[in-house]
Design goal:
Blueprint (H helix, E strand, L loop, with lengths): L9 H32 L1 H16 L1 H9 L4 H32 L1 H11 L4 H14 L5 H4 L4 H11 L3 H16 L1 H10 L4 H43 L4 H11 L5 H17 L3 H27 L7 H37 L10
Helix pairs in contact: 2-9, 2-15, 4-9, 4-12, 5-13, 11-12, 11-14, 11-15, 12-13, 13-14
């Protein structure tokens, strides 16, 4: 029976609202899937471009300070660009020799590690038998562990393609050179005064947060690198400086970086020292050092600069590593900071303080 006064029945109105909401969710889901697919397909260009944009934003406050002191924009861009180039070259120069040396000894290293870990033959044999019981014969080769599957992605960031390197340094220079013009062009694209003001606040907050993150984390990682070099020198590992540089770089990756460093130290220790206890000394000392740093030093320092929920950091790390590989792991936290700062300014919330 039709409703009086021309109003729709309540059930029909609820049904219409439900389908409208469902269609909006579906459109958002399709957009997200298409965006992730586009980021994956455009990785050779988007990855170095995103790196350049993030580093350019991190160096933005330095460029602004130079502008306030009357330094020409071109001079500032060249100096900062050369600074990034020198840092990248220095890292590569310090790591190139030991990395090439270990790669050349890879077959011998594999045999030595296998011999030192012979006590794991029993558990590994049990795992192979379990795999044979569950997997068909034609699928066993696919389930095997190939070390190349781990080495190749790691080398992808250490030895980037020439084209990607050109994109990174080229875009970084133009981001540093045209920072003010880019911001002015984006601001003038909005008609509303409040929207322009909000965009400027977002831009300035992103630069400030990224610069704060980079400077604080770089100092912490420098201490971690010095500690790793001291541990390597103290236990007798070769190339102590290279171990410090590697620890400094890997510690920019939350959670996973310290674990990777411990695995590498263990592998090198198994090759360098004759006994397992000696090989375990360096990774155990590094574990104790990074535990102290991660639970006491970093929270005490970062708590006054930037607060991130560990679960969100981990999810961001998983997503960007899955999408862009090892390079995405380095971008996970900076991109998370950009997203959170933008959301805080676009959707401000006046929430009452929760009780402790």
């Amino acid at each position: 029976m039709p409703a009086k006064n021309g109003h729709k029945p309540l059930a029909e109105s609820d049904d219409s609202t439900y389908w409208t909401f469902a269609s909006q969710i579906a459109i958002c889901g399709i957009f997200l899937i298409a965006l992730v697919a586009a980021l994956d397909l455009a990785r050779p260009v988007m990855l170095p471009a995103t790196f350049a944009l993030v580093i350019g934003l991190m160096l933005g406050p330095l460029s602004a300070r130079a502008d306030r002191h009357g330094v020409p924009t071109l001079v500032t861009a060249i100096v900062l660009w050369l600074l990034v180039l020198v840092i990248c070259y220095g890292v590569i120069a310090l790591l190139a020799t030991p990395v090439l040396d270990w790669i050349g000894k890879a077959p011998e290293i594999g045999r030595i590690i296998k011999a030192r870990l012979h006590f794991l033959d029993g558990p590994m044999s049990a795992l192979r038998d379990l795999r044979s019981a569950f997997l068909p014969e034609n699928e066993r080769s696919q389930a095997g562990v190939d070390i190349a599957n781990f080495v190749q992605p790691a080398l992808a960031i250490a030895t980037p393609a020439l084209g990607q390197t050109f994109i990174f340094f080229g875009m970084l220079f133009f981001v540093l050179l045209g920072r003010l013009r880019l911001r002015r062009a984006l601001v003038t694209g909005f008609d509303d005064h409040d929207t322009r003001l909000r965009f400027l606040k977002i831009w300035n907050a992103i630069e400030h947060q990224l610069t704060s993150y980079l400077s604080v984390v770089a100092v912490i990682n420098l201490a971690v690198g010095l500690g790793a070099a001291a541990i390597a020198f103290g236990v007798g590992l070769p190339n102590a400086v290279a171990w410090g540089v590697l620890a400094f770089i890997l510690n920019f990756i939350p959670y996973i970086g310290a674990l990777m460093m411990q695995i590498i130290l263990l592998s090198v220790g198994l090759v360098t020292f004759p006994t397992l206890p000696q090989a375990l000394l360096a990774p155990l000392l590094y574990l104790a050092f990074t535990t102290l740093e991660g639970h006491f030093i970093t929270p005490a320092v970062m708590g006054r600069h930037l607060t991130l929920v560990p679960l969100i950091v981990f999810l961001s790390l998983v997503f960007w590593t899955w999408l862009w590989g090892p390079a995405g792991a380095f971008l996970a936290v900076p991109l998370l900071i950009v997203g959170l700062v933008a959301l805080q300014h676009i959707f401000p919330k006046d929430r009452p303080a929760l009780p402790e």
